[in-house]
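On clarity, I found the account of how folds are encoded harder to follow than it need be. For illustration, here is how one protein appears when written out as sequence plus structure tokens.
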Amino acid sequence: MFDARLRPLIDPPLNALARRLSGTGITPNMVTALGFLIGLMAAFALVIEQYYAAAVLIALSRIADGMDGAIARHAAPRSRHPNAKTQESDLGGYYDIVADFLFYAGMVLAFAVGRPEHALMAAFLIFCFVGSGSSFLAYAIVAAKRGDNHEKQGKKSFYYLTGITEGSETIAVLLAFCIFPAYFAPIAAIFGALCLITTFGRVLQATRDFG
């Protein structure tokens, strides 16, 4: 819901840093891997209930998640892509998507491992993530098959369907879990319900657009 509104604030500093890093040999896939590794560290911090450390690591991981695309757009192409103007690639987009979805579900799982009394609500939230994520990716697959594309959320490697619960809202909720761990259950219940509403809205949109 807020991703498109935040892009004008997020993109300029990311692009500036990406331009500085573009000639260092650092590739977008390296940054994706680094972000995922930091995410694993955040998961471990959640398991041992070091919530403030987890919050910092989550923030760093998501900064890396934004940086990989920025570097891809600004870095000089590699020789294996002789006709490319940047290092943007389908494989890089694939890595980014897989890492993102594992990250989001992994944070919730790690919290449940650290505090098993919240395991049921964590399972509910992961279920809601699956609904939101599958409706998002399924729409993108069909849109790509039809040749549809748009860049409301900035340039993406696939059709980016908006909704109530997007990346920025999910990150905010993960940080809220770290800051207010005692309130995991109500936060998860509310956000899970919003994810289900988002899923339902995307199914309705797909019905209108593809029916």
In short: The longest helix spans residues 119-146. The domain at 3-210 is CATH 1.20.120.1760 (Four Helix Bundle (Hemerythrin (Met), subunit A)). The chain is about 75% helix and 0% strand.
